[in-house]
Design a protein that fits this description.
The complex is a heterodimer. Chain A is mainly α. In chain B, helix 3 packs antiparallel against helix 4 and helix 10 packs across helix 11. The radius of gyration of chain B is 19 Å and the shape is globular. Chains A and B meet through helix 4, helix 10 and helix 12 of A and helix 3, helix 4, helix 9 and helix 11 of B.
């Protein structure tokens, strides 16, 4: 049961990541291959604040999200001038750079040794790090993220995003500053990924750069594609299925090192299969142009 | 000291050139980023390892067989994944993501088969290198330089002088016009995958002689290939070598100032600067 709670918590965190990436990729059509960078900044900001300055994880949650949003601005401002494949490559590159900073800036992040002993959440002196309590916290937060992002995509702002995605020139001709919209959506997406990062760090209580590699970005993107581009409930399906299915490998008795490889092989094969036969995903409404 | 760094830069350049040339030869005919190129490279190295260390095949034959294998492996990826996508007119972004999926699959397949540990292809005692102007160059490094540069010249002659090479250039310049004058684009694509992938395979074997084999070796090779290709001008053959030269020198001279752990970050910083300020690369022509 505990194990199941754990898997649900992880799936919930990935749901937030997939939701935020879907806003960028599915609704606005910006291929981003570096989402783990924002996840990483959220996790490190919140953990370092807690470990170095004893800041409460709740403030860390907000700080992590804000730092991630600022990074979103810093990465988005130059990259969003690019389009399509080149935008994907640039975000991919920024993902590698952020990962290497986490890995190599040892005096600040402790590099590959990671940050152990990150405190958990508590509320009015009540410890929230018990599994079922944390699960409730994650569920509440992911539902909140869902409602906010749902509100965004169904607002007039969201309509402009879809216009930018489907026909940027037309959107421009209607007087919309498309670059500004793209940048804003990038920042919002980064903000929510930062929340997921902070949640993850205070849940696992240990982080190291290996949780934030480029492969992590691909996994998040795969969840978005799997469930469906521009489908928020699709992202739930994507996150839950792609977190649960590899767990089966553990049950059939594969050693964890081999299970990790088989999981990656599975992800790779699923990505190829979807691109071949259903690039918009199961419930998707949009495919990459 | 400076001579030593110069030699190291040239060796890195030779290897990167082979990877990048392979990447560019393929890109010119298919027009999307073939990420699985990095996996083909690693596969070449591991096949040579199995033949040379596992089966005791003489090194020269192991190298040739690995190159052949890599060539056919590239063709297989094209036939299985890219051809159906070309028929559906999938966008280059969708094909790139599929290629990334294939890369992840193959990389982990290698780790699954050979294990995660580092393997070595060196046998016998380590021989001392030759002293050249106060620097040291090992026999293996000399071989890498010779093999890589001979291959570069052969590729250049092939593309400039042979009929097939001309067809490849025509498809690169204008695929529609090429098919109008009777060049079969699919046949050209097949050949470019074979040649480009063999070059990657050979590069993989040469690198594993100099360093070692790891399942993840394809990733950094892929990055170097893509970055050097874009820096050089993505469709330009001399540009590919120029891009590799820039990257090889920047990395080896950069180590003086910045620790080696930042290599990939530096390479990507170069890429991002180029994407923003000169997206067409050094020798590229601005797209209309």
């Amino acid at each position: 049961m505990e194990y199941l709670f754990h898997i649900f918590i992880i799936a919930g965190i990935y749901y937030i990541l997939a939701l935020s990436l879907n806003l960028i990729v599915g609704y606005t059509g910006l291929p981003s291959l570096g989402h783990a960078a924002f996840y990483c900044i959220g996790a490190y900001t919140s953990s370092l604040l807690a470990l170095r300055f004893g800041v409460s994880p709740w403030i860390g949650l907000l700080a992590g999200a804000i730092f991630a949003a600022v990074l979103g601005l810093l990465i988005g401002a130059p990259s969003l001038r690019l389009k399509g494949d080149y935008l994907a490559l640039a975000t991919f590159g920024f993902g590698v750079i952020v990962y290497q900073i986490a890995l190599n800036w040892v005096s600040f992040t402790r590099g590959p040794m990671g940050l152990p002993g990150i405190p958990g959440y508590s509320l009015f002196g009540f410890d929230l790090s018990q599994l079922w309590v944390f699960l409730i916290l994650v569920v509440i937060l992911s539902i909140a993220c869902f409602f906010i992002i749902n509100r965004i995509v169904n607002s007039p702002f969201g309509r402009v995003l879809r216009a930018v995605r489907d026909d940027e020139i037309a959107a421009k001709s209607l007087g919309k500053d498309t670059i500004k919209y793209k940048l804003l959506v990038f920042v919002i997406g980064a903000f929510f990924a930062g929340i997921a990062g902070s949640l993850y760090a205070h849940y696992i209580t240990f982080i190291d750069p290996s949780s934030f590699t480029v492969m992590e970005s691909v996994a998040i993107l795969l969840m978005v594609i799997f469930g469906g581009m521009a489908s928020l409930s699709g992202s739930l399906v994507g996150a839950v299925v792609l977190i649960f299915v590899p767990e089966i490998l553990r049950f059939i008795g594969l050693p964890s090192s081999i299970a990790a490889q088989v999981r990656q092989m599975l992800y790779g094969a699923i990505l190829v299969a979807f691109m071949l036969w259903r690039p918009q995903g199961i419930f998707g409404k949009y495919r990459f142009k | 000291m400076i001579i030593q760094v110069l030699i190291n830069s040239l060796i890195a350049t030779s290897i990167y050139s082979l990877i990048t040339l392979g990447f560019v030869v393929i890109y010119r005919t298919v027009r999307f980023f073939h990420f699985a190129h990095g996996a083909v490279y690693a596969m070449g190295a591991y096949v040579a390892y199995s033949l040379f260390i596992g089966a005791g095949v003489p090194f020269v034959f192991a190298l040739l067989l690995a190159a052949l294998f890599a060539g056919f492996f590239g063709i297989t990826i094209d036939r299985m994944i890219y051809l159906p996508m070309r028929r559906k007119k999938s966008s280059s972004l969708v094909m790139m993501l599929a290629s990334f999926g294939a890369f992840i699959f193959i990389e982990n397949l290698i780790a699954f088969i050979y294990g995660n540990q580092i393997l070595t292809m060196r046998t016998g005692p380590i021989r001392e290198g030759w002293h050249v102007l106060g620097a040291i160059i090992t026999p293996i490094q000399t071989m890498i330089l010779i093999v890589a540069n001979v291959l570069m010249v052969l590729l250049w002659l092939f593309i400039q002088r042979t009929k097939l090479g001309k067809a490849m250039r025509a498809v690169a310049d204008d695929p529609i016009a090429a098919s109008v004058v009777g060049i079969n684009p699919e046949k050209t694509i097949l050949w470019s995958f074979f040649i480009g992938s063999s070059l990657a395979g050979i590069a993989g074997v040469l690198v594993s002689l100099e360093t070692n084999l790891e399942p993840t070796m394809g990733f950094s090779a892929l990055l170097k290939g893509i970055i050097a290709a874009i820096v050089g001008g993505i469709v330009s053959i001399p540009g590919a070598v120029l891009g590799a030269l820039l990257l090889g020198f920047a990395e080896n001279f950069g180590i003086w100032f910045i620790p080696a752990g930042w290599k990939d970050a530096i390479a990507f910083a170069i890429l991002i600067i180029f994407l923003l300020f000169r997206p067409q690369g050094i020798l590229g022509v601005k797209e209309k």
